[in-house]
Each structure stands twice: as structure tokens, then as C-alpha cells.
Amino acid sequence: MKLGIVGLPNVGKSTLFNAITKAGAESANYPFCTIEPNVGVVAVPDERLTILRDMYDSKKLVPTSIEFYDIAGLVRGASKGEGLGNQFLSHIREVASIIHVVRCFEDENVVHVDGKIGPSSDIETINYELILSDAEMIDRRIQKTQKQLKGDKTVAGELALLERVKKVLDEGLSARTMTLTEDEETFVKSLNLLSYKPIIYCANVSEEDIISGEDNAYVKEVRAFAETENAEVVVICGKIEQEIAELDDEDRTAFLEELGLNESGLDKLVRSCYHLLDLISFLTAGPQEVRAWTIRKGTKAPQAAGKIHSDIERGFIRAEVIAFDDLNTLKNMTAAKEAGKLRLEGKEYIVQDGDVVHFRFNV
């Protein structure tokens, strides 16, 4: 899963990226210190794996992972090439979802590219550039489809939908605000529009605000905007995330408790990403390794098996399944079997989050 971190210059993108990936991207108090996208692979936190490793005395623990792309700060005019904008926009097209970092903190030592803090204005600047870039792409697609229509009347429906999308973009609205049928949604997704990608608004606040647990006026502004797009909002403090990144697991837990926080910003962000993209994890466990596998909600057992290896999907017979919570309560597989918690499921079974699965197959 690839996620792109975007925002205006100096809103805390690279600080957040550094913290969650420990990748050491350059972070400086001037625009465009990030030119090429920095890429960091992050293990998805999942305490269930640690419990299973101890239960099975596994040699290896393999979490699932997310790729974060730190994309350079966009500015007004990016779609026309301002601030190397076209180069940056091309990087965004490669990701599954966008994390839009919005500055929601006061700091006279950190300059704002527009001279003042204004979350709604900042969001609109970025969104407007994405919309303009999409509009240009749609224009080209419409022209191409109009030419096709002369010899192929079957593309009339496609052309009508493209024109609907163009109308929404011309009104200054993101494509994701559209109401579409399932077939229309599949087609619009295939266009790879920037303004159609799922988005999380990440409000970067001060240490005082994250500890208080209350939204400041800037965060409330972000939430109000996000509601217009049915988008999610995650509140983080980049500075605290940086401090957490330097700690080992034990010290990290103690540090969070000391601050009165239940989880880190990374944990919140990952959870929101999974929810936004309709993702879940199933688990496999044994003496050699315990591992998490990411799939979409609604995935049937054979397709889930295919995440491990195509041969397992092709030769799928059935799946031995137990819910992690049941296995954790009963402490071992023998007790789980005796309690009737281990089930045999066939090809139509829809895998659930936290299922511990062993696939039977024959190739």
C-alpha cells in the first residue's frame, strides 16, 4: 500500500515523515527542501503478532507494511508548473491514498508560505491544484473519446460520464464528491484522478494541544472542511512523533503514558488508512513465522490465500480458521479445537479481520 504525504511547504510533512519512517528525510525551514519524493516503508503496528509469536514460539515475526511517499510542498500554481509542481503532481498519481498535512499550530519561528495560518485556505490551495490538473487530463480524454464516438457509438456513455466529471471539476469540486454507481465508480477509478483518491486530513498541532486532547480552532476548521468530502481527520503532533521515533518499544509506551496518550500518531494514522481503504489483516502462525497479510474487506478465502502464493489460491481446498480473540482467550490451538472454535471454511468464506488461517491446498 502506497500513501502520499502532501501539503504546503513548512506544514510539517517531512517532520511527520521522518518520525513515522525514521528515514531521515531533509526537514528545513524553507520551501522545496524536498525535491524528489522520499520513500519510507513502515511496519504496521499489530500487537496480535507478538502474542502469536510467543504462543507458537515462532522464529520470525513479519508484520504487513505501508510505503509512505513524502512529496514536496505544493504551492499555488503547481498544476501549471509553479514550484516544480507538475513533477510533484506526477508522484501523487502513483499512490493509493493521500495524507494531506495541514498546519494547525502557531510558531513564529516557522514561516508560512502565505504569511498566515489558515487551514481552509491551505486545503483549498492544494485541492485546487489537484482539481486543475485533473481537469486538464479530463479535457484530453474527452477530446479522444469524441473522436472515437464517430466510429464507435458504444463509447457514448463513457463520454457522458467524462463530461459529468468535467462539470464537477469546473465547479472547483474534487471528483470524490461525486455520487456514482458501482460501474461508474470503477471507470472513474481507472482514470487515476488526483482529486478522486481517498484522502485523510492530518492536522499537525502543538504539543500542548495534543496533550489536552481538545481540538483548537484550526482543527475544528479542518474537520468542518473534511465533512464536505466525507473525509477522515487525524490529529497528530509532529514534534512528539519525532521524540517517539527515537525510543524503543518499552520507553515509547512509558513516554505515551506520561503524556496521557493512548496511542501514537502513527497508530492513529495507520488505523485511519485501513478504514479509509477498506483494508483488514488476516494472520498466519506457526513455528517458523507469524505474519500479517493485508486484504480488502469482503475478500473470499481463495483470494486471500492468493496473497500468500498464487499456487495456494489455484489449488485451494479449504481453510482452517479461528478468530484471534478466541485463540488468545484459550491460549493454544489444542484448547481451541476442544472448545470447537476452529472452523473449516470453503471457497465462499469471507475472511474477517484477525482471522488466524491455515490454508489447505493441492497443486
Task: Describe, in plain words, how this protein is organized in 3D.
With 363 residues, this protein is α/β, with parallel strands linked by helices. The chain has 2 domains: 2-147 and 163-183 and 190-276, 3-Layer(aba) Sandwich (Rossmann fold); 298-361, Ubiquitin-like (UB roll). The chain contains 15 helices and 12 strands. The chain has helices at residues 13-21, 47-56, 85-92, 119-149, 156-170, 182-190, 207-212, 217-227, 238-245, 249-259, 265-276, 301-308, 310-314, 324-330, 333-338; strands at 2-6, 38-43, 60-62, 65-70, 97-103, 199-204, 232-236, 279-285, 289-296, 316-323, 343-345, 355-361. Strands 2-4-1-5-6-7 form a 6-stranded mixed sheet, with helices on both faces. β8 and β9 form a beta hairpin. α1 packs parallel to α9 (238-245) and α4 (119-149) runs antiparallel to α5. The longest helix is centred in the middle third of the chain and has 31 residues, at 119-149. It is flat, with a radius of gyration of 23 Å. Residues 23-35 and 81-86 have low confidence and may be disordered.
